[in-house]
Amino acid sequence: ACSIQIQSAPDPSIPDDTMLVAADNGSPLFEKNFNPFMINKRVAAFYMYEPLIVLDNLNAEEHPWLSTGYTQPDPSTIVFAIRDGVTWSDGEDFTAADVGFTFQLLKDNPSLDLQGIWSYIDTFEVGTDTVTVHLTAPDVPAAQLIASTTLIVPEHIWADVEDPTTWRNPEPVGTGPYTLGNFAPQQYTVDKNQDYWQADTVAAEHLILPATNTQLDVATKGYDWAYSFISDVDGAWVDAGNQNTYWFPPGGTIALFPNLTKAPFNDVNVRQGLSTALDRGMVGDAAAEGYMDPAGQTNILLPNQADVLNPEIPDSGLITQDTAKALEYFAAAGYTQQGGKLVDASGTQLSLTITTAAGYNDWLKGVQEVQKQWGAIGVDVKVESPQPAAYTLALRNGEYDFAMGATGGTGNTFRDFNNLLSSEWVKPVGEEASNNFERFSDPAVDEILADYKVALDPEEQADLANQLQQVVYDQIPSISLYYGGSWGLFSNAKFTGWPSADDPYASPKTYESTPLLVLTNLKKVNDD
Amino acid sequence: MGFVARKLGLFALTLWAAVTVNFLLPRLMPGTPADAALAKLAQNGPVTEATKAAIEAQLGVPTGNIVEQYFAYLHQVVTLDFGISYTFYPQSVGELVSAALPYTLVLVGLVTVVAFILGTLLGVLAAWKRGTWLDSVPTLVGSFMSAFPYFWTALLLLFFAGYVLRLFPTSGAYGPTAQPNLSFEFFGDALYHGVLPALTILITSLGGWILGMRNTMISTLGDDYVTFAEANGLKPRTIALRYAARNAILPNLTSFGLALGGVVGGSILVEQVFGYPGIGYLLFNAVTNQDYPLMQALFLMITVSVLIANFLVDILYGVLDPRTRR
Amino acid sequence: MTTSLPPTTAAIRAPLSTIDAAPSPWKVVVRVASTVWSNGKARIGLVMLAVFILLAIFAPLIAPYGARETGFERSADGSAAHWLGTTAAGEDVLSQLLYGAQISIFVGLVAGLLSTIIAVLIGLSWGYVRGFGADVINFVVNLFLVIPGLPLMIVIAAYLSGGGIGMIIVVVVITGWAWGARVLRSQTQSLRSRDFVTAAVFSGERPFRIVFREILPNMTSLIVGNFFGAATAAILAEAGLEFLGLGDSTVVSWGTMLFWAQNSNALLTGQWALLFAPGLCIALLATSLTLINFGVDGISNPRLREGTKK
Amino acid sequence: MTPTPFSQTPPAANTTLLEVHDLSVHYGYGAGATKAVQNVSFRLAHGEFVGLVGESGSGKSTLGFALTGLSKPPAHIEKGRILFGGKDIASLDAEQLREQRHGGIAMVLQSGMNALNPVRSIRNHFVDIFRAHGHVERSRWTARATELIGKVELTPQVLDRFPGELSGGMRQRVSIALALSLEPELMVFDEPTTALDVLVQHAVMNTIIELQKSENFTAILISHDLGIVLESAQRVMVMHEGRIVEDAPARQILQNPQAPYTRMLLSHYADPRAEVVELPGFADRQQRKAEGASRTEAATHTPTVSPRTRRTDQHAMVVENVSKIYPAPRRGEAPVRAVDNVSFTLEPGAALALVGASGSGKSTIAKLITAVEKPTSGSIRFGDLDVGKLNRRHFRRLHRDVQMVFQDPYSALNPLHTVEYALTRPVINFTGLTGTDARRRVLELLDIVGLSPVEEFAAKLPHQLSGGQRQRVVIARALASDPQVIIADEPVSMLDVSLRAGVLALLEDLREQWGVSLLYITHDLLSARVVTDNIMVLNGGAVVERGVTADVLQNPQDDYTIRLLDAIPNPRKVVA
Ligand SMILES: Nc1ncnc2c1ncn2[C@@H]1O[C@H](COP(=O)(O)OP(=O)(O)OP(=O)(O)O)[C@@H](O)[C@H]1O
Ligand SMILES: Nc1ncnc2c1ncn2[C@@H]1O[C@H](COP(=O)(O)OP(=O)(O)OP(=O)(O)O)[C@@H](O)[C@H]1O
Ligand SMILES: [Mg+2]
Ligand SMILES: [Mg+2]
């Protein structure tokens, strides 16, 4: 429905083997920073430096990468088998020593250790083609974290760097599929690494990454790959031509975190009441304009992680709106409807404030829908949207009633539940917690998590995961609303083989390491 | 002499207070720079405690109590070394500012001057031809255009001239592959990219100058020296320009001074819409990311340039108005 | 009367026929209003403003749907049911436009009024006092003039987030009063040297009364002009803040409409009316105030009145 | 250099230069129009020097602008024709009109002080004219400008100055030189000397008269001062309410005025040096003194509250060795010694005149006495009040007893407050009366100053009052606190002759009736003569002469006093 239909008009000077990618945003100019350990690095550093394994956070699948695999002889030991035949882009051989060097680098420079792997690692040993990591405590899932988030850098270059914490690595040398091409402050290109260890899987010879990628740009300038939510995507993106398609799989669960230190939100009946009163479909529709599905109350992403789902939970965990049932729950908690208001014994109306961040507009729209629905059963709901920094602070300090937030989607089931439920994160209100902001604490659940942490047997893992889903379903530590999308926009004009609902082999994200999966899976359309 | 000393004292006091306010403003905002960075990261997934610690270490988030920070800041002000930006870590504030400043100065500065000159001329014409279409058209169109919201004008221009008609580039200060240098080619490229933002500022600021000049000029037109000049049969052009306009422009210089001082602050909304790499864009990023070092430096720069611009206008006043010469 | 007045001064006993009825404050208002009305541009402005105000007041009656009513087709083009189409969230644009007028006009008028009041209080005392007091005020006003406006707004907005429209008004007022204060001060200074002010001192009046009963009423037109200027600035500032996402995006105002329009990329989805209409309304509302100011200028400066030609 | 216009032979060529036929000029249109000039007709021959007199607002300037084609909207010629050299001015288009300004009609504006562009040097003013008309070659510009500036008795250095750097008199001369540079056939001088000091005024008038003789242009001199006109013009037109009520040779006007209005104007001239000075409404002071209080008794005015009865103590204002030095106005210049070691005592009930040219320090003394300014040295005492060191907070104590009548009744009243409000405030503040008592007192005050019916006047706004009525309100306000001392700083200089005498008589009356002492500040020696007993002459801040008013004026000792007396225009001098 477009009165002025914008048409995609790709720049004819961009050849067929070159891909235009909206992956990196300058502010508004690019700073030439390819240090993979910095928060402000160029995104293409992810295409140049590779992890030991690539974890697809959509379906929690591990892909062996610089390591051909790892074994866990006991819950506190990991042995990585290092891939042979990999060379750095300057021709030097990649070895286990490089992996060891990288681990040591992060130990020596804690400020570079953004994922905090050294909070798990105790020591490590470098073998000829293995690296063995000893953890400080038994922790099976830590292997995945260490393996998937640590980008390996070449020792022969980084050993001479004076201060790696500020070094901008202007001429990056990595093992990845791409090397740096032309760099200008408003756009840079990366070129295919012809000596890449799986060079035959890489179809695109060049990637162009402009510094500004407004939605208008993306729609009109013939981008091949972008990661962005576009309103009315069919009208604005698909109809713009250029064989555009899109795939918006769930990348996490958007949920409302109740503050469990506050009455009456510490009453599970109140939470159940609030949860049952919601029409999640409408909330998701309002927030994501109908592109995302309502989320089940299990902390599992569907359909991608369907095989983890606890089959005993009814309806795949999806709660349908049921006002009568909600009122029953409220009655159990001592709340009754009076004159359209939900009041407790003393006649005070149930009132709460939902905190969300300014500028997170999909959340805001969702919250407004929640406000409407809860208002309809007589709850007085206020909405606050402070700046992101203040929102983060409120969340971490536990100074809120209900807060919007994202949960799950790390690609590691244990971590998804641990972050949400473990009492290890719990801090008193006023002190910053880094996870479990709702401050859920249950010794029984802690026990399940402890078992999970050391479980090596997949059967046992699955069983524990089922128990945890039941906990989330019954105790409502967070009220799941809808899935947060991964907004993949693709064009089939030059390259095909994009991830899709039919072939959900990877997340459509353009940043972090999953793009490696995509970049090694594409095929050129005109192979001449 | 006592008068001058007092003025200078007041100037210094204002400067100090402004500098101090600039220090306090960012710190009055809730949350720290690390929280802002975390909030950004959290959009991509949960963030651990270790991450926060690493971020804080990376950014060098200020340590010490507020008094120590204040003195460290004063030291920075004096040495003009504002350290490393949080948002754009590891770039230094100096690096960032010196990269952004030229574009803002040229774009906003040039347009401000052009708008002032053009608006003033149109205002003179309107007042001189009072009651004719030369008066009513510029004043009505001017007051209408000056009521346009900046960003709205920017968006419309961007959409129609940029995307529909594809006449001008839609973002950036120069072509995507260009490397900034002093060549003729680059200059032309930069000029081409500046057209739309410049047009936006021109459209929305022109009206104010037209109206201001028209009103003061109508007042001076009634002054006795204008009547006397007419009685002496001077050429209408001479009367309009050298008598009426020449005197009418003086009061408008003060506004011009403030506007010029504001140039350094850039035009946040316009730069935002056009992704123009100027100070305004930097400022917006700094503020929304609680980038203390960058914010402090930018605020200081803006404050000082407003003070200096006012000072220069005072001097110009002295040159243009013999009455103030002492 | 039997004063010893000489016969030749009979002229002093003015022709009593010219005596008007006792002046009431309403007469002054009527006089001011008629001066403004007599200006063609101001007349257009007043009519425009009146239309906007009426639309805002009667929005609930005129608007076809509720401002926040959703559930219509998303991003639809104009149709008989939705003259200006719908938003990406499935709201009726026309209804939002009508309800949005309430906020914009409210913010404009309230913020304009408040910053004018502050400007008057500070500008007048600044103009009247001398010595240390004047230096202190001068210092404060200079500070507010020198500190960059929009950034200050952003910082305050970030600090006061969640305050809704009230916060926007506070921000606009804090950053907007200083200029008016400066203008009013210089006018006060020139008025304070008038004889009638000195005469009031001789009448034993206290400074407060001199400032607010003798000087203030003589600046009516300047103050009214300042009000319209401040209101215009407030309307534009509100829109700017909302557009940057620093306001309260849950209310429906023209500013938030633009914010959501930009956010859902109305231009990309072809919803040009969604972007065009609120901006145009802001521009027209602000223009109406600017036009009224033409008439207000004429009150204090007869030269700025429109020539009464045939 | 006393001008003697009548000794001059009449113009040789008696041909008509300007012919005005049934001219009406209106401001605005329709019923609300101000008919500033109505049905005016006259002829002007080559070389004539004609005076145009009339009170403020009678339409003189409007006529002057119409003649020179300078009428601006809303002014417009409603009907009639102006033929200059046979050509109708109204028929010329803008450019033709502009071109004819060289060798045509030039005008020196009423506000000559502001007629120069403040940001252009005097030289450039000349250059602009030369360039516009091209009647002087570029090479001769400086020479011609120097020549012209010399004709108005200024030095060539003036050329490189800016208007702001010149005194009012110099600026007025520059305006005249500029007009002269057009080599006009007819010059219209609109009040060329208003707002100038008496001495400067005298000098400028002399220059004009000399110039007219030497350059032999035709001149119209507009003035509200019949004295000035009669001293210089051969023929006088008297204007009243937009019409010319009398048009006759100067001598005839003086000796045999026809119109009652002309006669009224003439009656207000007297020589302050005369043995006996009488003005309409004033018997001579000495005579009155001799007659005793008979006149006062005649005024059977009995106030309901006798103000004096409450006073037990009467104080004198004692000024001793007072100096006031203002900081230098520009860097590098000397500080201004506005008042220089002045001492005097104002006894209760006395009337003291303070005279002197502009800038001689008169107003400064008034400010010092009223504590508006503090003296640099010396002391001012009023009873137990040390006025010189009075704090702002104690102003009320002083102002209860010392009040001021302002020079300009137009700006001394707040245009937005009614007369009643203006009078009620001091009554409430100083007498403590409230409600109906205060109102009664206000009406009484109006009655005292002769504004009746009092109720009606109480309700008026200043713009509904004439200048004289306003000044009466100002006086009433000064009386409201029942003061002991009234300072009147040039209370009539802004008023037309027709209103002056009434106000002066009122002041005089009040003093006699209520026993207040009066400090009368003026540069007008005639009025000083009629209202005061003693006089002090100020020059450059210092007292140069003092004594009994009549003695000092009849027998001046100081040179400066003599010059002041000489500068007074007096039509009778002409015939004498
Ligand atoms: N611009 C104007 N608009 C309307 N009325 C005007 C205007 N200028 C003058 N008048 C009116 O025209 C009449 C004549 O004014 P004019 O200036 O000619 O008087 P004048 O004799 O020169 O007085 P003065 O001695 O005060 O200069 C007055 O009643 C005045 O109020
Ligand atoms: N506030 C001031 N600052 C500096 N100089 C001043 C100030 N007030 C007056 N003067 C100077 O003091 C001198 C005396 O001024 P004053 O006003 O007393 O004269 P005046 O006799 O009242 O003159 P006029 O007849 O023009 O009113 C003048 O030279 C004047 O310029
Ligand atoms: Mg006049
Ligand atoms: Mg004086």
From TrEMBL, chain B:
The chain crosses the membrane at residues 103-128, 140-165, 190-211, 249-274, 294-320. Residues 101-313 form the ABC transmembrane type-1 domain. It is found in: Cell membrane; Membrane. Keywords: Membrane, Transmembrane, Transmembrane helix, Transport. It comes from the Bacteria. Its main location: membrane. It is a multi-pass membrane protein. The keyword Transmembrane helix applies. Belongs to the binding-protein-dependent transport system permease family. GO terms for biological process: transmembrane transport. SUPFAM superfamilies: MetI-like. Pfam families: BPD_transp_1. GO terms for cellular component: plasma membrane. This is ABC transporter permease. It comes from Cryobacterium lactosi.
TrEMBL record, chain C:
Keywords: Cell membrane, Membrane, Transmembrane, Transmembrane helix, Transport. The keyword Transport applies. It is a multi-pass membrane protein. The chain crosses the membrane at residues 44-63, 103-124, 136-159, 165-184, 215-237, 273-296. One of its GO terms (molecular function) is dipeptide transmembrane transporter activity. InterPro entries: BP-dependent_transpt_permease (IPR050366), MetI-like (IPR000515), MetI-like_sf (IPR035906), OppC_N (IPR025966). GO terms for cellular component: plasma membrane. Pfam families: BPD_transp_1, OppC_N. Residues 105-293 form the ABC transmembrane type-1 domain. SUPFAM superfamilies: MetI-like. It is found in: Cell membrane. Belongs to the binding-protein-dependent transport system permease family. This is ABC transporter permease. It comes from Cryobacterium lactosi.
UniProtKB/TrEMBL annotation, chain D:
GO terms for molecular function: ATP binding; ATP hydrolysis activity. Residues 285-294 have a biased composition (Basic and acidic residues). Residues 297-307 have a biased composition (Polar residues). Residues 285-313 are annotated as: Disordered. GO terms for biological process: peptide transport; transmembrane transport. Pfam families: ABC_tran, oligo_HPY. Residues 18-266, 317-565 form the ABC transporter domain. SUPFAM superfamilies: P-loop containing nucleoside triphosphate hydrolases. PANTHER family: ABC TRANSPORTER, ATP-BINDING PROTEIN, TRANSPORT ATP-BINDING PROTEIN. This is ABC transporter ATP-binding protein.
